[in-house]
Batch of 2 targets.
Target 1
Amino acid sequence: MSHPCPGGCGETVPDAMLSCRPDWYWLPPGVRSEVWATKSMHITQPRRMAALAAAVQFYVDKGRTPPPEWMVIVDELSHQEKEGT
Ligand SMILES: [Zn+2]
């Protein structure tokens, strides 16, 4: 299985990786290590979702446009934060 790179570069990457190589190494070390630390967790687990959302948000902050399936994660997390869970 593969998925579109969350860096918005148009690359397709294998599921074993989050982003294409340049976009992965572009992430701040703290974000990268948290994505790596949670890689065996399911997306529905809050820590994993937070790690992925931080990565997607980084790309957004840098002016990239992540694919919609990635933006869903950021939207979902901000929704949960509003509810205080
Ligand atoms: Zn990329």
Target 2
Amino acid sequence: MDGSAHPAQAWLGGPEDLLERGAYLTLLAGHRTADLDRAEAARVAAGTLADLAEGAERERAEAAEEAASARAEAQAALDAQEDRFGELLDEQTRLERLLAERRAAWEVRAARGPAEVAGAGERAVPAAGAGGGDDRARIAPDTPVCSGGDGGSHVNGRFPVSALCPLPQAGEWLRPDAAAAFVALDAAYRARFGVPMCVADSYRPYHEQVRLFQEMLPGMAARPGTSQHGLGLAVDLCGGVHQPSSPQHAWMLANAPGHGWINPDWARGGFEPWHWEFTG
Ligand SMILES: [Zn+2]
């Protein structure tokens, strides 16, 4: 050997160099693989996160959609309730106006009454200022004296004033026997509650029956000419008696029949707790 280097050695260096380069390349490859693995892992992780995010976004969108539809439903229910409430208010306003008109009509009739029923109307009104204060005068039992009617029979709703007797409640009239029984019942009621019975309606002439029949909801008023009001044998009461759960109503159920007055079966069950009829 002449000691000259092998040409390959000049380019590659010694075997040690070769070994070092080999180890370096292996190391480099290893690093690269690790980098690739990390990149892949990151890619997978990113993909998973994207999937998760997409899923979450989809769920959020669905939830938002559900919330929107629930909100729309709630709003619709609220609107419906408001509409119904408005209708009930209108109906109440209408009935209150009707009651006020009816009372006004009766006041006119009551004012006319005394002239037609020889002084009976005057006795129907408690004497103002007699005895203690106004309250005493108002709640003092007073028994109107009535001639007892004209004895004739009359068509429903066509009673002349002379065939009716006034109640202690101004402007209210009934057939004489019903009126007398009502006055006794009213006295017992005053003894129990300290106030006269509240009467919203009593004898109802035919034209009033027609008007009510036309204005009331179906089934709420009797067919004209068939109402017990038209015979002077029915009253519509207020002051608590019109509410089935009130002590006044309970008292009436227990005590009115003893005076010949009943809340008929058809009026029970909350249908017309205010309507009472004289059965004799
Ligand atoms: Zn009635």
